[in-house]
Amino acid sequence: MKKFIATILTIWIPIKKIRREARFKLIVLFNVSCARKKYSIKIKEIRNKLKNKQKISVGFYVVFDAVIQTIPIFEKMLDDDVFEPYILVIPDSYRGEENMFHQMKKTYNSLSSKYKNVLNSYDYDKKCFIDYSSKFDIIFFNNPYDDMTQEIYGIVYNSKNGPLTCFTDYGYDISNMHSQSYRTLRYNILWKNFILEKNEYFNCKKNLVVKDANIVLSGYCKMDKIAQIKENKRERKKIILAPHHSINMPEFSLSNFLRYYDFFLELPKKYPQIDFVFRPHPLLFVTLEKDSLWGKKKVQQYLDEMTSNKNVEYQEGGEYFETFVNSDALIHDCGSFTAEYLFTNHPCCFMLKDDKTTDKNSNDFHKACINNHYKAYNQEQIIDFIENVVIKEKDTMFEKRKKFKEENLLINYPNVSDFIINHIKEAIK
């Protein structure tokens, strides 16, 4: 009897899984079909606008001022007669109300001090969020996670409600988990998904439910800005310390901060002749502030001790390319920085737990980027990097890094934003 039940289960469970998969595909195909009908209507509206010499309204939905990969597109559209671009600051609803309002105000103040046409998604008088889906012809999303913000600012909601929805990732795809993300509705329903590099393009093409209908290999528009920054002469060496936030993410754990936080405090004292930029991922201390981890008091004590060093600059967020270009090295365990910093040609050191964890977390592209870093599994190897590669300038990996960058990262660089804008213009003609 037991063998009979086991046999039935081995047949029934796969069938159930296949049925569930088939049902999911039908849901995706139905929603994509509906969205495309909306896109067709919107394209006709846009063409009529252009005939009447009206501008196309474009919304750039932004959560954090440090995570705006589409800023070069926004800046170019400001000077383009075809477009009228706006930045809309939207909420991070995932990490508590206090943090949500703090981040919205911080991001709005930061961006409105630099640019015109910056809008707030929250009406502070009426105490409600504003639905902008009918106000824009095109929307660029700077974050793919619909469950991270209010529904009305998500990819799926807006794709169903009329605007042409565009996305280009806020960082290079470095995780093994992302293959499954391409099977979600949000990636399939987009009007255009501008892909950063070839590995991601073929991975996306392979895993999308609606095969390659909306993907464009464009390159990484965010990196256009780094080409405009000139390196200044420096008398002192400058090293960036950039720890990741994934301290409580067992499914994707890059962060080594809890291993090295005391060591990070020692480095400015050990090397007073070097300037350090302490730039943690924006979510690191938001995570640590939870009472189950450090709590707010310990976080503040740590930051006070770190910034008490005269040779430490603490960066809480915002633009970082100026810092990248005018630094001598990066020590980190972040994701997209692994590729982004290679644009500078400066040496970089990646902090690893062990090779097994790297194999679990990282896709082939990320592993290739890490292989163009000096690797550190312990404090001694970080010190060796500082003393030999940075101070003594024995950068034996320089030519290797440069070649990898030229062969893998410079797609349409430094004119990726022009490529994307021209692609959109052609698509709506």
Plain-language structure description:
This protein has helices spanning 2-51, 71-78, 97-112, 155-160, 178-181, 185-189, 198-207, 257-270, 284-288, 296-307, 321-325, 337-340, 355-361, 364-370, 379-391, 398-408, 416-428; strands spanning 56-62, 83-89, 118-120, 122-123, 128-129, 138-141, 164-168, 192-195, 215-217, 237-242, 274-278, 312-314, 329-332, 348-351, 374-376. It folds into 2 domains: 2-220 and 413-428, 3-Layer(aba) Sandwich (Rossmann fold); 226-408, Rossmann fold (3-Layer(aba) Sandwich). The chain is of the alpha/beta class. The strands form 3 sheets. The chain has a 7-stranded parallel beta sheet with strand order 3-2-1-6-7-8-9, with helices on both faces. Strands 12-11-10-13-14-15 form a 6-stranded parallel beta sheet, covered by helices on one side. Helix 2 (71-78) crosses helix 17. It has 17 helices and 15 strands. It is globular. Helices cover 44% and strands 14% of the residues.
